[in-house]
Amino acid sequence: MTRPITLLVSIALYVVNMANGHCVYWVPNGFCTTSGYSLPMIQQYCPKSCANSGCNGPTTPAPVVQNANCGKWNRDPTNVFCATATLDQKKTFCPTTCAKEINPVDDCAVYVSVAGGDVVRTATNTSTTALPAAAAANDKLLDVYARAKCTISLYDVANPTIGGAAPTAPKMSYVGTGSSQFFQIADAVGQAALSIGCTCV
Q1: Which InterPro entries would you find in this protein's record (predicted)?
Q2: Nearest to 66 by CA among 25, 37, 101, 31
């Protein structure tokens, strides 16, 4: 009589899957909503934790869990994670570290590598006053952010005139759009910028 044994194994697997201990980590990292996981997988592994599983179970609240390396990744001057990763990657791996990039409230921001190899984020809103970019000789501007319909301009002088009848010409400018708001600065002139300006329409 193998049928009762098969039935018992199936029931046991179902109970284990309903209480999968990993769901508490998987759900806040996109398991229920990422297109890479099919509905059968969601139903198999976390039917009670995923509201979209179709199993009518209550959603299990889970703590926000992020990768332990987020701080290190975001201080990497060769690839500042929160400024270069996709929105899905930020939400999945570093939702706390990248909170300002996931739901930005600033018009513009810069990411500068400072002495000691750390990366500092400085944000600003529309202003006629320039903001220092590379404050020290060894500082390097790595990335900039411009909200949609905002322009962030890089200057090679510390106190440019922004707006007015005779504005200082920027060395380069980046215009934020709906799909493109973070820009990596690969040009040595841009990396050495002494100040930035932020204007929005």
Answers
A1: ShKT_dom (IPR003582)
A2: 25
Rounded alpha-carbon distances, angstroms, from residue 189 to 115, 119, 157: 19, 19, 12
> Torsions phi, psi of 8, nearest 5?
-65, -40
* Measured distance CA(151)–CA(147) in Å, rounded: 8
pLDDT in tens, 151-198: 999 988 888 888 778 889 999 999 999 888 999 998 888 888 888 889
Residue 33: burial class (beta carbons within 10 Å; 0-12, 13-18, 19+): middle
CA distance 144 to 123: 10
Indicate the number of domains in the chain: 3
pLDDT, position 14? 45
Give 101's pLDDT tier (boundaries 50, 70, 90): very high
The first and second tokens of residue 80, run together, are 């500042």
Half-sphere exposure at residue 177, Cβ-oriented, CA atoms within 13 angstroms: 4
Shared domain for 94 and 109, answered yes or no, is: no
Claim to verify: residue 96 and residue 115 sit in the same structural domain: no
Residue-averaged pLDDT of the chain: 80
